[in-house]
């Protein structure tokens, strides 16, 4: 399944749901000047069918007592660095950049979203994001993937530029958001557990990211039933800086009918994210994703 196909596979034309947000912290990242690393496994944007579009916003909250510096980089499924993010800051909205730098004040919040052009167009993008952070900080982060009728942009309110769809006061279109789901940013780890219900009317869409710049990740994937017994196994190879995004059934070559955990293990740190696509009612549903050997949060 290719990068664009992941968007289509999740039923974007009719998909929708609202899910609870998730949180995460950074992790030490070798070769990044001792900065900490946070991975967002699902970042998508595209026009689906005029005026409906798909857009992603990364949201960061700083629980530290000092300002936190962050650098955000987005990559396509094939590891190619992409120019898809814009930034709402205390000044004018930033230009799209291969790397977005931002400062998050103590107990403050910042957003960065897949950008629109002056013509209101969105980049056709499917991939993931890496965020490098100041060391030893307390950060919460999630990506919100939305199906909407109005792309989000930066507007000024009280001297602070923030993300807004710009149509909330338009009585003819009081709510441009059709459906949305939040997916947590995660710390790279060698083992992930995903709580899944995958069957006739609900399918689990998964994204596996290898953030290593030099090593291929050999990932073992196991399905466990409600009794904790392994009922199915498969494996995938994820090239350096690549992402694999598929339904669980596609990973196993057939519908696995999961009602329990999916366990991912790798000799090198990876990142895993996912959502569930409910066929009746067409919502997205957030799922529990647990990195096992990532540093414990406070």
| Gap from first CA to last CA | 38 Å
Number of strands: 21
Characterize the overall form. Answer: globular
Uncertain segments are 1-32, 89-94, 155-172
Question: How much of the polypeptide forms β-strand, as a percent range?
Answer: over 45%
Mean pLDDT: 76
Count of helices? 2
Helix-strand sequence: HEEEEEEEEEEEEEEEEEEHEEE
Q: Cα-atom Rg, whole angstroms?
A: 18 Å
* Helix proportion: under 10%
Reported for the largest beta sheet, the result is:
11 strands, antiparallel
Structural class: mainly beta
Features:
disordered N terminus; mainly beta; 2 helices; 298 residues
Describe the overall structure.
With about 300 residues, the chain is mainly beta. The protein contains two helices and 21 strands. It has helices spanning about 5-10, 250; strands spanning about 25-30, 35-50, 50-60, 70-75, 80, 85, 100-105, 110-115, 125-135, 140-150, 155, 160-165, 175-185, 190-200, 200-210, 215-225, 230-240, 245, 260-280, 285, 290. The strands form three sheets. Strands 1, 2, 3, 4, 5, 6, 7, 8, 9, 10 and 13 form an eleven-stranded antiparallel β-sheet that branches. Strands 14, 15, 16, 17, 18, 19, 20 and 21 form an eight-stranded antiparallel β-sheet that branches. A hairpin with a 7-residue loop joins strand 1 and strand 2 (about 35-50). Mean pLDDT is about 75; it is low at about 1-30, about 90-95 and about 155-170.
